[in-house]
From TrEMBL:
Main location: membrane
Family according to the record: Belongs to the AzlC family.
Compartment(s) where it occurs, according to its Swiss-Prot or TrEMBL record: Cell membrane
Name by which UniProt lists this protein: Branched-chain amino acid transporter AzlC
Organism, as annotated: Meridianimarinicoccus roseus
Matches recorded under PANTHER family: INNER MEMBRANE PROTEIN YGAZ
Membrane topology according to the record: Multi-pass membrane protein
GO-annotated biological processes: L-valine transmembrane transport
Keywords (A to Z) from UniProt: Cell membrane, Membrane, Transmembrane, Transmembrane helix, Transport
Keyword Ribonucleoprotein: no
GO cellular-component term (any): plasma membrane
Pfam families in alphabetical order: AzlC
Transmembrane segments annotated in the record for this chain: 32-53, 60-80, 121-141, 153-171, 177-210
Superkingdom in the source lineage: Bacteria
Amino acid sequence: MRGAAPFILVIAPFGLLFGVIGTEAGLNIAQVMGFTVLVIAGAAQFTAVQLMVDNAPTVIVLATALAVNLRMAMYSASLVPHLGRAPLWQRALVAYGLVDQSYAVSILEFERTAMPLPERFAFFMGSFLVISPFWYAATLVGAQVGTAIPDSFALDFAIPITFLALIAPALRTLPHIVAALVSTLAALALAGLPYGTGLLLAAVTAMAAGAATELAMERRA
């Protein structure tokens, strides 16, 4: 909980912003909170709501939201050596609590500290449980106050700050750097495509570039 606590500084405005945007998009409080509690993935939520406002086809909304969340599949795969032998009910809780912040804090700790499986599970859930109440509560407040929050508060700063804080420590190998660079360039180059489909293509291209780099390094080794 101590390791994840600093993320509260960006989780709170992140949640406030989604609550405001959700209500401005025409969702009622129950729908906004359903998004936050069930999807529990800020970037995908913002993406889906924006596409819904743009009247994008449902299949595009779903596909783009899933593409934004493809990183969760990679997070899950990297946690298997550490939590894969946990009982099913524990893995189900980990699956629900697998958000960027809980993953970032936990994987760094797992890789540098030897601890038995029950302690790894406890550590992961602790990192999630200190973040999630602020995410839920901030979204509820944002949905209730809506446009009463002045634009001068600039809540949208929380989005890039959150992901910069998560991505920077992860850029430890050449494949990670290649994937990050390719995703950035591809997303910018394809930004003009409709319904955010450029993001889908950028994500696939970046993953392929990172995987190809890793394979090339393994062959050379």
